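Q: I'm writing a short explainer about Aldo/keto reductase for a general audience and would like to include a description of its predicted shape. Could you first generate the structure from this sequence?
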Amino acid sequence: MPETTRLPETTRNAIPMRVLGRSGVRVSELCLGTMTFGTEWGFGTDESTSRKIYETYREAGGNYVDTANNYTNGSSEEILGRLVAPERDSVVVSTKYTFPTDSADPNTGGNHRKSLRRSVETSLRRLGTDYIDLLWVHAWDQCTPVDETLRALDDLVRSGKVLAIGVSNTPAWVVSQSVAIAELRGWSSFCTMQVEYALTARTAERDLLPMARALGIEVSAWSPLGRGTLARPMSEEAFAKLPAPVQRILTVTREVAGELGVSPARVALAWVRRQGLMLSIGARTVDQINDNLAALDVELDDSHLVRLDEASKIRLGYPHEFLHERRAMFTPDALRA
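A: Of course. Here's the predicted structure. Afterward I'll give you a sentence or two in plain language.
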């Protein structure tokens, strides 16, 4: 995992704070994800419940909230804008662009400048603010050259409408290329990255996490509860339909949770924290956000970590396993032989 910069103990709130990569911005280790703010997608929360979730998070010391231009068809940004309005400068607000927002207009999606300009102006209006603390490239669109995207993002940073930029759902080689281009040309570079990461989703360990460590990019895990699998109650019938690897992971997670007297969700979140990542946590109820926040108090010992790792580990594949098998060939002693 990338090295992280933690603030001194005396400056921490209930949620530990970190410096967001090279941006210098201080953010909570637990970010409040707001994909559930709004009912347009059929599974979210109304504004009243969203407000209670937000207030619970803020009371715990959290200062970092995340949304996207397409979440609940724009309602998430609008609700979040009203919630942060009384304390805008005290909250780090991030939003995203890339995915299409109008199926009839192909240029409402993508990482090109036209999509970016339209998205940012719309997000600023919905959020009721004149700047975005952190703007994410939501995904690699596989069409726009990375230097075009970076140049457009740099213009926004220079204008003051965006303060920092991040990237999500993008191959490691594309992120590495982008960082190199930005550094060579003196443009704003990605300070942070979001990846899907959970006990049930560890493939980021192959390339993305080592890359982030090498480049000093802070990493945040989205869906650290395995898209809900590690948290939701489940009947025996539903459990039996899960793939065998997921059954094994869920079984061990539940066993550890029982030994500690906590929920499986807390164990799953605590495990991700122990890997050095920040987390994006979402909720549909106040009880859920309280349970997620309580993961900060979970202490996993070495035996717990070993069992969880064994249950969830993945094959790193080529070239990682090939190089690991031959690692001894490149030690100083071997090279002198």
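A: For your explainer, you could say: The CA atoms of residues 273 and 279 lie 7 Å apart.
Q: Perfect, that's easy to follow.
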